[in-house]
Amino acid sequence: MDSTGKVMKWAELIFVFLSLFSIISTKYQLSTIEIRPDPSGEPAKIFTDEEISKYDGSDSSKPLLMAVRGVVFDVSEGKDFYGQGAGYSILAAKDATYALAKWSLEKKDMHHDLSSLSDHELEGLDKVFLETYMKKYPVVGYMDYLIEEHGKKVEERFQGEL
């Protein structure tokens, strides 16, 4: 094989390697969450884990709440699914992001840490978040961790300008 042939073989190998690397290293990008004020013009309600746990449907004077990706939804209309004793009641009154991504009803999966999820799981989560929760249930607030993350991103974006 002459030197041109060797160079071509190396170029082909490098191209294959780079192609595989880009496929492996590409991480699914979740849709952006826009923090919006309450429709009444009031600031958005911010929930802690402890506070959202009070909205489990056991008190009929309170709405039934659930958080996905840090966005808190009033799922009272879905009480047949999320209410006390219903099949998905474990998802209510908490941020169940990870559990939804994994299609899990196990207590250990009731959290919002997405770091161990695959691209396929992230994409599925995004689809459920956008096409089910955002379309069907009213947003009533945001989890504190989402507000903190959002604040850090704003600071980074405007660093040196503020």
Automatic annotation (TrEMBL):
User: Which compartments does it reside in?
Assistant: Endoplasmic reticulum
Q: May I ask which residue range the UniProt record assigns to the signal sequence?
A: none
Q: What is its main location?
A: endoplasmic reticulum
SMART domains, alphabetized: Cyt-b5
Q: Which GO terms describe its molecular function?
A: metal ion binding
Q: Where are the transmembrane segments?
A: none
Q: Which Pfam families match?
A: Cyt-b5
Question: Which superkingdom is the protein from?
Answer: Eukaryota
The UniProt record lists the Cytochrome b5 heme-binding domain at 47-144
Keyword set, alphabetical order: Endoplasmic reticulum, Heme, Iron, Metal-binding
User: InterPro entries, per this entry?
Assistant: Cyt_B5-like_heme/steroid-bd (IPR001199), Cyt_B5-like_heme/steroid_sf (IPR036400), MAPR/NEUFC/NENF-like (IPR050577)
Q: Which GO terms describe its cellular component?
A: endoplasmic reticulum; membrane
UniProt family annotation: Belongs to the cytochrome b5 family. MAPR subfamily.
Q: What is this protein called?
A: Cytochrome b5 heme-binding domain-containing protein
The protein's organism comes out as Magallana gigas (Pacific oyster)
